[in-house]
């Protein structure tokens, strides 16, 4: 089974040289810690920055320099600042190559729900609806089941939708799943996780290729 | 073309009950702190506030919420604010949630004189309810309309007496498009300079969009989430 950092580490392998990448709040933010050597990517933060760097050193935080999660950050050489309209222009026009975000539910046809739980406080969608409506490649980082142990990989989302048919890949603590015409296609099992456990915890349509490999994570 | 005024109190003195006000900023970054304080002091009520966020309990727009000055918030994300939550749940406060890119573009369109546009954000969701949907080049889009305000209040790093503005780092965010969309736009700046002191090549908001400008004071610039690493990491 993967921990949060290992989920991020596995997703980082999907990054390709030359990619512009938008990382959402939570596990997706951790992906930045595992960018493979020799892979040159530029991180976009939708509040108005290309070229997001690591957190600042203690005492060097700058209140005018934050990411979309409102955390203090730094910039890398070659970065650019811009306004929110330009930021979403680059998102809508598919200039951002990969978006990684969290989800409450994903359906086996790639619908995603991650902004609202009816009856509870609604905090808002932020930039998530814009991102999922336009991104050409969306990877979701999420836990496979909720606190009650119920599957979050579903036939149909039960929560209000953020976007339809947009998710391409899901990485959970149990494995890597591509969204295909045959539903969730198990591509890799997490170390120590059986196909049976994945079947039991996946409510949506699940396709399993023969001899599905166990994931190896380099240290 | 001298647009200088004395201070924040004078800038907001004709913002009346029931008006629509845009406020720049993302979280607490790049918010017009001085004008928010002046609005709280003025006691104006029943405002519709258009702002990406609603501040935190004791800072930013949260200060106006505490005084029940806001009738309606138009935002993309409104977490981190217990008083906001209480007023929303009790029905004292209306909220309209808009995808962030749609919010930015609606303000920009308001400032650009374009009444509507089409965006894919929100297709198939609650956001699409009641909106015209059209297919262009095989993809579905929603029609969204411009946003305009009686007053827009923005915060910039540097400005000149003509109202030309330069923002700093990610404190730019919603400020430039909101500056365009106000019938009257107020700019508060950290440093107000004479005309000619700013390089015209570097201006972000041309002065034509700005009606009043003053140099703010005592900027607190509160940080919502201080995230740091130790030296050597």
Give the topology, please.
The complex is a heterodimer of chains A (219) and B (233).
Chain A (H helix, E strand, L loop, with lengths): L3 H9 L7 E4 L3 H4 L11 E4 L3 E4 L22 E7 L2 H9 L5 E4 L3 E3 L4 E2 L14 H7 L3 E4 L11 E2 L14 E3 L3 E6 L2 E7 L5 H7 L4 E9 L5
Parallel strand pairs in A: 1-2, 1-5, 5-8, 6-9, 8-10, 12-13
Antiparallel strand pairs in A: 2-3, 3-4, 6-7, 10-11, 11-12
Chain B lengths: L7 H4 L8 E4 L9 H10 L4 E4 L10 H6 L3 E6 L6 H8 L4 E4 L2 H13 L3 E4 L13 E4 L2 E7 L3 E12 L4 E2 L8 H6 L1 E12 L18 E4 L18
Parallel strand pairs in B: 1-2, 1-8, 2-3, 3-4, 8-10, 10-11
Antiparallel strand pairs in B: 5-7, 6-7, 8-9
Structure description:
- The complex is a heterodimer of chains A (219) and B (233).
- Helix content of chain A is 16%, strand content 27%.
- With 219 residues, chain A is an alpha/beta fold.
- In chain A, the strands form two sheets. Chain A has a ten-stranded mixed sheet, with helices on both faces. In chain A, strands 7-6-9 form a three-stranded mixed sheet, with no helix packed on it.
- The mean pLDDT of chain A is 95.
- With 233 residues, chain B is α/β, with parallel strands linked by helices.
- Chain B is 20% helix and 27% strand.
- In chain B, α2 (33-42) links the parallel β1 and β2 (47-50).
- Chains A and B meet through α3 and α4 of A and α4, α5 and α6 of B.
């Amino acid at each position: 089974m993967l921990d949060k950092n290992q989920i991020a580490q596995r997703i980082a392998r999907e990054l390709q040289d030359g990619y512009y990448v938008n990382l959402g709040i939570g596990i997706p933010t951790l992906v930045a810690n595992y960018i493979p050597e020799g892979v040159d990517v530029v991180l976009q933060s939708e509040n108005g920055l290309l070229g997001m760097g690591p957190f600042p050193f203690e005492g060097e935080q700058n209140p005018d320099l934050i990411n979309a999660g409102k955390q203090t950050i730094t910039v890398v050489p070659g970065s650019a600042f811009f306004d929110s309209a330009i930021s979403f222009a680059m998102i809508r026009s598919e200039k951002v190559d990969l978006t990684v975000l969290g989800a409450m539910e994903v359906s086996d046809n790639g619908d995603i729900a991650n902004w609202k739980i009816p009856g509870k406080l609604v905090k808002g969608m932020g930039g998530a609806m814009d991102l999922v409506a336009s991104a050409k490649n969306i990877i979701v980082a999420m836990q496979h089941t909720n606190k009650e142990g119920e599957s979050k990989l579903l036939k149909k989302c039960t929560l209000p939708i953020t976007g339809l048919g947009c998710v391409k890949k899901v990485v959970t603590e149990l494995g890597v799943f591509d969204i295909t015409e045959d539903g969730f296609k198990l591509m890799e099992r997490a170390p120590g996780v059986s196909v049976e456990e994945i079947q039991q915890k996946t409510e949506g349509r699940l396709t399993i290729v023969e001899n599905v490999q166990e994931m190896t994570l380099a240290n | 073309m001298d647009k200088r005024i004395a201070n924040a109190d004078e800038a907001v003195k004709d913002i009346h009950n029931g008006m629509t006000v845009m406020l720049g900023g993302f979280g607490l970054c790049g918010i017009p702190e001085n004008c928010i304080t002046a609005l709280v002091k003025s006691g104006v009520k029943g405002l519709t506030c258009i702002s990406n966020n609603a501040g935190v309990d004791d800072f930013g727009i949260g200060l106006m919420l505490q005084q029940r000055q806001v009738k309606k918030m138009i935002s993309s994300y409104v977490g981190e604010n217990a008083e906001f939550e209480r007023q929303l749940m009790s029905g004292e406060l209306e909220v309209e949630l808009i995808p962030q890119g749609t919010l930015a573009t609606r303000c920009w369109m308001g400032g650009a004189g374009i009444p509507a546009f089409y965006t894919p954000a929100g297709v198939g969701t609650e956001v699409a309810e009641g909106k015209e949907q059209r297919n262009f080049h095989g993809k579905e889009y929603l029609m969204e309309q411009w946003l305009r305000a009686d007053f827009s209040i923005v915060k910039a790093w540097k400005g000149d007496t003509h109202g030309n503005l330069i923002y700093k780092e990610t404190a730019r965010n919603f400020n430039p498009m909101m500056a365009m969309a106000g019938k009257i736009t107020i700019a508060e700046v950290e440093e107000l300079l004479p005309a000619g002191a700013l390089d015209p090549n570097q201006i972000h908001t041309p002065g034509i969009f700005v009606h009043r400008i003053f140099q703010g004071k005592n900027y607190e610039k509160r940080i919502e989430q201080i995230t740091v690493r130790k030296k050597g990491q």
